[in-house]
Here is the input.
Amino acid sequence: MQSKIDGEALPFLLRASRKQQSLTDAVSELRGIIERQLQASGGILFRDFHLDGAEAFRSFAASFGHPLLSYEFGSTPRTQVSSGVYTSTEYPPHQSIPLHNEQAYTRDWPLKIWFYCEQPAQQGGETPIADSRLIYRDMPAAIRSRFAEKGVMYVRNYGSGLDVDWRDVFGTQSKAEVEAYCAAHAIACEWKDGDELRTRQVCQGTAVHPFTGDKVWFNQAHLFHVSSLAPEVRESLLDIVSDPLELPRNAFYGDGSPIEDETLAAVRDVLDRHKIIFPWQAGDVVMLDNMLTAHAREPFKGPRRVIVAMAQAYGLQ
Here is the structure.
């Protein structure tokens, strides 16, 4: 695990060249550097620039020429701040969020993602990042080949108070709209008793970046799989729900066969080896190529506010 900025390729650090330099204005001056470094290093940290709140952040992210994306088919609770801008995942402060690429559990994802730190936590709360190219190369060959060949099937059960409600995930009260969305995105869905919903989707285990040609580790099996739960939580859930398909969320190989606990333990070990942690400063903005760079969240104490924007949709046809 790495824990510094200076001297590291990731993130590439861009500092303001003068006092109160506007980050939005700097884009026109620095666009060539930004575009080159984003593909070379996978992530850029903008520091000491002037950025006045959420609307200015929205304008900055939108200035790269792609409409900001809504958070469709989400897997975690968030709140919309303004059009295309959301809070970061609203999990309790004592919980960590492992490294992942945004929406890698789907067949459609953003190529660009931005994080804006309005208020750093009193303690912790960093947003670690990691190079998905290095993770791919460092993954044991047998595991890498298996995930590349089989892909990952994500099974989600909404309702019953155990996970995010389907109305929040799909942003609608209409079952017909849910069914239409699923049909358009190669998601199998079925309605169950008690107004509950189950979806299944087979997605990529690895991917190839459309512009750089780099092979990357690109899935969230380690987040969705039952082994991601604390042992006591896993045991309690399996006492209630004996069928792995009935768990709020779970991950299988793309052919429906179980993913072994030890396989995902090895995956998590690789991810941990490549984690880079740096402290937030108020006003920092991090811009990531979402396929080249994974991100996470450390536990924290005290108030913390980090907001997010995404753009440039891409995915499997």
